[in-house]
Amino acid sequence: MSTTGRGLSPEQRDWLQRTLKGFALSPEAWISTLMSYGIAASYLTGKATSCPVCGGDDRFTYDNRHGRGDWVCRKCNDGDPMGGDGLQLITRVNRIGLFKLMRELTGGAPPSKRAVADFKAPRPKRKASPAFVEKRLTDMWNAARPQATGDLSMRYLQERVPGLTAGPSRALRLGMLEYRHDRKVLGEWPGILARFELPDGRLGTLHRTFLDPVTPAKASIVSPDGEILDVKLNDMTLNPLAGGAVRLMQPVDGEIGVGEGLETVYGGFMETGVPVWNCLNRVLLSQFVVPEGFGIKVVHIFMDFDHVDPKTGKSPGVVAGMALAKRLRAEGYTVVLHRPRVRGTDFADQWTTRYLASRMSGPLGRQASPSPRVARAF
User: Fold this and answer.
1) Which of 87, 118, 149 is the last residue in one of the domains?
2) Cβ neighbourhood burial of 214 (10 Å; 0-12, 13-18, 19+)
3) Is residue 264 a contact partner of residue 348, using CB atoms and an 8 Å limit?
């Protein structure tokens, strides 16, 4: 079991290690405990299901192989396999620290002999109404400022994609955003809001990238328990996200490019000059649907060249791009596939490498520059 103790005092770390060492559950008790923390029984059958951590289909298996509530996701989040014990599964799904979880399970005392049936399950989260979610997202969007040349969001993107020539996008805004963790507000940070729209134009969600208030970099946000928290994540979901994208630019001459991440697609734009949209992640990229009314006939797919999944022998990012290409070609679109040259990189990495190399070559060297094709901000 995980014994991470970042941010804990020596006494807390010692208590956590001793508690983990003495913590053992029967197979039935593991299932009961996992279900009490919101992990539905449908995930715990021993068969491949969708993943309660990343949401991807047919990739998660709970097998309790070592008697510790063991599980594996074959393509979690950014494409790498992930697995662990039942405690790690609870902390990831509920976004709570391991120290806090063990205090809840043991009552904050040394290991006890109470049965899991005696533990108090947390109250189920109340599902927000669509009206509440819509108001929250609308208010957040309206309170943020449209992206502007020279603001923190543009400086961040130009730091991540050096030499970026794309102008401000109407799909992006800069605002002061609350960061909530474990139902508590940890504070406010500046952040990029990306408007994720479905093929019919309805709002799906707002994706947030929390930024450092001083430097053009991602924020560093740490929970009270010492857990380093994600700074790139969606807010509440108003409508199911399958098929949608963040429409960063206007299509040009019937062409658009799509990719997984914000920085990735801007790197693809700098490499090719193709206007781009962002699908947020690999799963949503594979589900992208070309919306009507834009005259799109050609779709460029900027794939992440992930490391090989040892179970499948394939690169998850490439698999997602190829799946999308196959479907779009069957629907009559022309598809152009783009893959970085170096395994383990995306187009933000590739563009940065080429840009910096060209800068180092001196005034006589060839300067990296995008295709002369012009992409209009959307």
Assistant:
1) 118
2) exposed
3) yes
In this structure, are residues 317 and 305 in contact, taking their beta carbons and an 8 Å threshold?
yes
Helix (H) or strand (E) holding 12: helix 10-21
Report the distance separating Cα 34 and Cα 60, nearest Å: 15
Count CB atoms within 10 A of the CB of residue 187. 12
Residue 364 has pLDDT above 50, yes or no: no
Enumerate long-range contacts of 147-153, CB under 8 Å, 24 or more apart.
Answer: 147/172, 147/173, 147/174, 147/192, 148/174, 152/190, 152/211, 152/216, 153/192, 153/211
Do 32 and 155 lie in one domain? The reply is no
Q: How far is CA 155 from CA 149, 182, 214, 330, in A?
A: 8, 31, 11, 40
Which structural domain range is residue 49 located in? 10-118
Which parts of 231-293 are beta strand (E)? 232-234, 245-246, 255-259, 276-278
Choose the final residue of a domain: 118, 139, 156. Answer: 118
Per the domain annotation, does 242 fall within a domain? yes
Residues constituting the chain: 378
Token digits for 214? Answer: 């001083």
Q: Where are the alpha helices (DSSP H) in 126-173?
A: 130-143, 152-160
Q: Are the beta carbons of 20 and 3 closer than 8 angstroms?
A: yes
**69-118 pLDDT per residue, tens:** 898 888 776 567 788 898 989 888 887 888 888 887 776 543 333 333 33
Q: Is the pLDDT of residue 344 over 80?
A: yes
Q: Is residue 26 part of a domain?
A: yes
The band of 144, judged by pLDDT with boundaries at 50, 70 and 90, is very high
Domains in the chain, number: 2
pLDDT for the residue 278: 97
Token reading at 182: 């474990």
Spell out the residues 6+ positions from residue 149 whose beta carbon is closer than 8 angstroms to its own. 167, 168
- Mark whether 47 and 185 lie in a shared domain: no
Residue 378 covered by a domain: no
Of the candidates 59, 65, 53, 61, the one whose C-alpha atom is nearest the C-alpha of residue 27 is 65
